[in-house]
Amino acid sequence: GQPGNPQPRMFRVVEDEALINRMGFNNPGADAMAGRLRDWHDSGAWPSHPVGVNLGKSKVTPLADATADYRYSFELLKNLADFFVVNVSSPNTPNLRQLQDKSALAEILAALQEANDDNRPILVKVAPDLGFDALDEILELVEPHNLAGIVATNTTIARPAESGLYAETGGLSGRPLARRSTEVIRHLYRQSGGRVPLIGVGGIFDAADAWEKITAGASLLQIYSGMVFEGPQITRAILKGLAKRLAREGFTELREAVGTEK
Known about the structure:
The protein is α/β, with parallel strands linked by helices. The chain has helices at residues 30-43, 66-77, 102-115, 132-139, 178-191, 207-216, 225-230, 234-249; strands at 10-13, 18-21, 52-55, 83-87, 122-126, 149-152, 171-174, 198-201, 220-222. The strands form two sheets. Strands 3-4-5-6-8-9 form a six-stranded parallel sheet. Strands 1-2-7 form a three-stranded antiparallel sheet, with no helix packed on it.
């Protein structure tokens, strides 16, 4: 486990509906997490929806030992969750983003799949700050390493302004991330010919935002900042809005809308 970065480490730019966080993967560690997941299973309260685990290396682990770190966590947790996300894109662990490099990421994925005897879905979470060439290199790893999909995107180190809270270091999420995360989704969808499932993340606050991500190529969506600003009722509001939009566009299922933007 690790305590993460010193507080304060989360900031709200309320007028822009943006968050800046530099949490630093604060967590009790994979061993403790395995115990908690096991207890959850045994309690009979395990949910019907999929449960995912985000895998990130510890801050003290040198980059040269990153593969062993990811594999250790995966070995402990692989039978206790439904899918796994390899997070090599958080800006809050020093040098972590270097692991998005094709050869470094390939080594990590090969090690995880070697241990993946139950064939659990493994996805990679990418940074919005990667260029399209770097994203294309990650796409080249999908087939040889049996990736189940890509999470697009993590938070950004880019800023819409330099003053006030925007001067704080960390990853920016919320509305200012929306456009770039959609650009990444669109590129990944088109480059892969729609063959790689994409989880769209970044600046989703309502059904229109969700629709934009879906029609750009996302098959699934994740929300964090929107829930912080709007509360848990945001999911119901988005689902209602999407149902209306589907009917209006002449679709019967969301999957029909994926990647259909004009």
